[in-house]
Write a structure and sequence with these properties.
about 280 residues; Nucleotidyltransferase, domain 5; 12 strands
């Protein structure tokens, strides 16, 4: 759809700056999004105009179903990624935002914030993941669904305002478990296999039941609202054809940007920017 063009362009710029950081003037304020995923920790950095500057990521198993299970390991990785970016840019990163799956409450939300603070960030904003994703997508009406490694988060928007959020523990981890079982391979091998482009067509029928389960979750959470369109984000949404399965199952037009994986990290960074700059 045409309105996703702006989101696609923003994410493409972010993608490009990961390898080739944008130049930063000496006194430019920078804002970092800290995305603690089940499979990856991603940092995204924007400037005071909300434009991508750079980012970094690392595979990690420190979060399970949206909950931090290795606080020390998570904080260490975020600190190392932060230091690497600071070395590339020649500036210190301070202001940040972090995000949590919608079903995360109380102390579990604070744990995510404490990880970022333990790495040296000043955390100004803590937002739910699908709401953060919508900072990039810019949806006024519909449902934004963040399908991550451990959870599927749903946010319903009306006139640009989030009126409902929820999540359930189904995501990319479950895809990998199904692949591991079907092929008799380890979980790690399954993780690699499911993201190998030339094997994804072969894997599609194997993973279709899990995609249908994700669709059922989405359908259950949006059924009491008048939702005309569903928009996917999150790394698991990268799997080719998942939007087709979701649309077939729930009967609602379903869309995704070119690179759903980077939508939420960028949205978290923009949330930090919005908190400070307004």
């Amino acid at each position: 759809m045409d309105f996703l063009q702006d989101a696609n362009q923003l994410i493409k710029r972010f993608e490009d700056t990961i390898a080739h950081p944008a130049p930063v003037k000496k006194d430019t304020k920078l804002y970092t999004g800290v995305d603690l995923g089940t499979a990856y920790i991603v940092l995204a950095v924007v400037d005071d105009k909300g434009q991508p500057i750079t980012g970094a990521m690392r595979y990690a198993e420190v979060v399970k179903d949206g909950l931090v299970v290795d606080f020390v390991g998570a904080s260490r990785i975020v600190k190392e990624l932060k230091a690497g970016i600071e070395e590339k840019l020649g500036v210190e990163l301070e202001a940040a935002a972090a995000a949590y799956p919608p079903g995360t409450v109380g102390g579990d939300q604070k744990a995510i914030k404490y990880v970022a603070e333990g790495a040296g960030f000043n955390v100004d904003a803590l937002v739910d993941e699908p709401t953060a994703a919508n900072q990039v997508l810019g949806i006024q009406n519909g449902a934004v669904v963040d399908i991550g490694g451990g959870t599927t988060g749903v946010a319903v928007l009306k006139d640009g305002e989030v009126i409902y959020v929820a999540d359930e523990p189904t995501g990319g981890t479950h895809f990998s478990l199904v692949v591991a079982g079907a092929y008799g391979i380890s979980f790690g091998e399954a993780e690699k296999l499911k993201t190998t482009p030339e094997r994804q067509k072969e894997l599609f029928p194997v993973l279709k039941p899990v995609m249908e389960k994700v669709a059922t979750i989405i359908g259950r959470h949006i059924q009491k609202f008048h939702v005309d369109n569903v928009y996917l984000a999150g790394g698991t949404s990268c799997f080719p054809g998942i939007e087709t399965i979701v649309e077939q199952e729930i009967g609602v037009p379903t869309w995704k940007p070119d690179n759903p994986f980077l939508v939420t990290p960028m949205g978290i960074a923009l949330s930090a920017h919005m908190k400070r700059e307004g």
